[in-house]
Every structure is written in C-alpha cells, then in structure tokens.
Amino acid sequence: MKKFMIILTLLIAVFGASAYLFFKPKNLQNDEVVLDTELTPLPCDLNKEHSCEVEYKGKKVSFALSPKPIYTMQPVTVKIEGLSDIKNPSLEISGVNMDMGVIKAKLEPRENGYVSNVVLSSCLLTVMRYRFEIYSNGKKIGLFIDFDLRQ
C-alpha cells in the first residue's frame, strides 16, 4: 500500500507538471521583455529645470512640472505655455521604455497656457521615460516632450 501511494503521488506530480507546461499561456513560454535600460540623455531634465522648451511650427512651447522633485504615485501639475492655434488640446502620457498604458488628461486653460494634474505610475525600472504628447481634437499633432522619472 505504501509503494502504491508513492507511485500515485509521483504520477500525479509528473502529470501536473506536464499539464502546466503544455497548457501554459504562450506569452509565458517565451517571455521576451525588452526594456531599454541604456537611455540616451535628454537635452532638458524636467525634474531639474524650471521648464523645457520644444519647437513646434516655428514657435517655442514650454513644459513645466511641479512640485519638484517628481515622485511616482504622487499628484503632478503639468503646465504648458506657448500653445496656439490648437483646438481642444488634450494630453496623453505614455511610457517610452516601458508599457504602462496611456494616461489621458484634459488640459485646462490658465493665464498664459494650459494646466493638467496627473499621477504617474511606477514600475520596476530605475529610470522610467515618459512621453507627454499634445493632441488636438483627439488627434496627434506631432508635439511632445520626453521626461525621465527616477525611483
């Protein structure tokens, strides 16, 4: 009886392991996650500088974040100045070196520009590069700035 229980236990273990390997989802079998760990330094660091400028259609558009330093999972105010001739502008934030989904934010007109409050997600990377991209009436217009967030 003891031998029978040992053999039965081994058979169940072998069968279970075989079933797991056979029915395991394909994305877990050859998990090839490519993470860009060697990022090219950005020309302007929004975490250090008061604001950073991008040229768009011959005009300067400035982006600023506050409060500084920026932390993940904490409210951040994005201020954009110099937007003109853009109808119904909105902001989409996505990861460049990671897949964090897309954060869609409305831009509210204020004084000389637009403002939005967002919360940036966190992941396992030490440096997360985000892209802040401006949309007009829900369509890309080619205006964006990249920002590195360090954990």
Could you give a quick summary of the protein structure above?
The chain is an alpha+beta fold. The chain is 17% helix and 42% strand.
What does this structure look like?
The chain folds into two domains: about 1-30; about 50-150, Immunoglobulin-like, CATH 2.60.40.770. The longest helix is centred in the first third of the chain and has 22 residues, at about 1-25. It is elongated, with a radius of gyration of 24 Å. The chain has two helices and nine strands; from the N terminus they run ααβββββββββ. With about 150 residues, it is α+β, with helices and mostly antiparallel strands. The model is unreliable at about 25-35 (pLDDT under 50). A five-stranded antiparallel beta sheet has the order 1-2-3-7-6, with no helix packed on it. It has a four-stranded antiparallel beta sheet with strand order 5-4-8-9, with no helix packed on it.
Number of strands: 9
DSSP strand (E) fraction?
Answer: 35-45%
Uncertain spans? 26-34
Helix content: 10-25%
CATH-derived topology of the largest domain: Immunoglobulin-like
- The pLDDT mean sits at 84
How would a textbook summarize the main sheet?
5 strands, antiparallel
Secondary-structure-based class equals: alpha+beta
Number of discrete helical segments: 2
End-to-end C-alpha gap: 58 Å
| Integer tally of domains | 2
| Shape field | elongated
CATH architecture tag of the largest domain: Sandwich
Protein name: Periplasmic protein
Organism: Campylobacter californiensis
